[in-house]
Amino acid sequence: MTDTRWRPVKRTRTFEDVLAQIEHRIAEDGLTAGDRLPAERRLAEQLGVSRSSVREAMRVLETLGVVSSQAGRGPDAGAVLTSRPDSALTDVLRLNLGLATLELREVIDTRLMIERWAAAQAARARAGTSALAEALKGMDEAGSAEEFVEHDTAFHCAIAEISGNRLIAAFMRSLRESMSRYAVEAVERLGDTSGLQADHRRILRAVHEGDPEEATRAVTDHLARAYPAAC
Amino acid sequence: MTDTRWRPVKRTRTFEDVLAQIEHRIAEDGLTAGDRLPAERRLAEQLGVSRSSVREAMRVLETLGVVSSQAGRGPDAGAVLTSRPDSALTDVLRLNLGLATLELREVIDTRLMIERWAAAQAARARAGTSALAEALKGMDEAGSAEEFVEHDTAFHCAIAEISGNRLIAAFMRSLRESMSRYAVEAVERLGDTSGLQADHRRILRAVHEGDPEEATRAVTDHLARAYPAAC
DNA sequence: ACCACAATATGGTCAGACCATACCGAATCC
DNA sequence: GGATTCGGTATGGTCTGACCATATTGTGGT
Description:
The structure is a homodimer.
Chain A: H1 14-29, H2 40-47, H3 51-63, E1 67-70, E2 78-81, H4 85-98, H5 104-125, H6 130-140, H7 145-163, H8 166-178, H9 180-190, H10 194-209, H11 212-226
Helix pairs in contact in A: 1-3, 2-3, 4-8, 5-7, 5-8, 5-10, 5-11, 6-7, 6-10, 7-8, 7-9, 10-11
Chain A binds a DNA duplex through α3.
C-alpha cells in the first residue's frame, strides 16, 4: 500500500483524448462543414499518439456523421468535415431495434408524433407539394409491397422536408429506414392499398390547402389504419 | 484494357465488412443485450482480417451504443452487447450543432414537439410525479444558473420518462444535453426564474390531475417563455 | 482454509511496413 | 505550343507483430 496510488475510476482511452482534441479544435477554430482536418499521420504526430488511435477517433467521427474520409491527393482528399446526421441516426435506431431493446410500439408512437407535427407544419408552409404528388403516383403504379413502401417512405419523408426542420426530417428518414422491414410486412398483411392511398390524397389535399388541423387528423387516421394493432 | 476490370463504384472497407458480419450474426443468432461477442483476436481470425479492422468496427459499434468493451478476464470482460442509444444520440446532436449545420431554432422546435407529446402522455399515465416534485425543489434551492438548469433538465426528462416511451425519453435527454450550454445562457439572460417555476408547477399540476390538454398548453406556454425569440 | 503469486485472456497502444487511390507536374510526343 | 503520358507523392486502408494494462483464474505454499 506504499506505491499503489488511486487513480480516477475511468481512465480515458487515447482515441477519446483525440476525439476531445478534435472537437475542441472544431469549436476553437470555428471549423464548419467543408473544412479539412489534418492528415492522419500529421495529426498523430501533433498529438503525440499513434496513427491507430487517430484512426479509431476518425471512425467514431465518421460514424457520428461529421467527417468523411477520402483517399488520394488534392483538395477533396483527407478527412473533410461534413454533417450527415442521417446515417448516424439510422444506424442507432436500426441496431437498437435489432437488439430488441426498443419495442416496435415505441418507434411507431414516435413516428406518429413526428408525422403529426410535420404534417401540420407542412400545411402551414404550403410549399412543394409536387414531390408529394409524384410519390403518390409512384405508389399507384407500384407492383409490389416493397415498391409501394419505397414511394410511401418518399411521401412521408417529403412531408417532413417541407416542414423545414432538418433535424426532424433526418429523424423521420431514420425512423422510416430502420423500420422499413416492418412497413413492408404491414402492407402485405393489409393486402389492399386503396385505403392507404385515399389517406394519402386526403393528407396531400390538407397540406395543399394549408389546413394544419385537417392535416394532423388525416395523418392520425392514416397511421391508425396502417398499424391497427399499435394504435 | 485486357486485365483491368471495372469494380463497383464504392468499395467496402474491411471494417465495414466486419460490421456487416457482426450485425448479421446478431440478427442470425438472436443475440441481445448482455450477450458477449468473441474476443477481438478471435474475431479477426474467424473473419480473416487484421485485428485493427476488427477494432475499428468495435469503435463504431461502441459509438452507436450497442457494445461495451471491458479489458481483463472473466464473464464481464470482452465486448458485451448493450443498448445505450443515449450517448450516441447526444453525440450526434452535439457535434452537428457544433458544426453549425443544425440551427438552434430547429432543435428548439423539436424539443417543443417532444415536450408537448410527452406531457400529454405523462398526464394520461399519471404516475411518478414524485420525481417531478423533487426536481422542482432542486430548482427552488439552486444557487446558480447551471444548478437551476441541471434540475430543470431533470424535470423535463422525468416527464419524458413518465410517458413510457424510451425512444422519446432518450431523444429528450440527448436534446437537453446537447443544448445545455444554450439553456444556461437563456436562464442567465432571463434573470428571474420565478416565472419558469410557476410554469413548472402548472405542468406538474396538470400531469398530476391527468389533464393532457392542460399539460400540453402549459408546456407550450413554458417554452414560449423560456425561448421568446424562437417561438 | 486462506493467502500470495504466477499464468492467462482480454482490450489498449504503438511502430513500421506495404497497398490503393488520386492528384500533381514534368517529360515526352505530336 | 498543346496534348498526352507517366512517375512522384500525399492521402487513407490494411496488415503484422510486439508490448502494456487490467482483471480473472489457477496454483502452490503456509
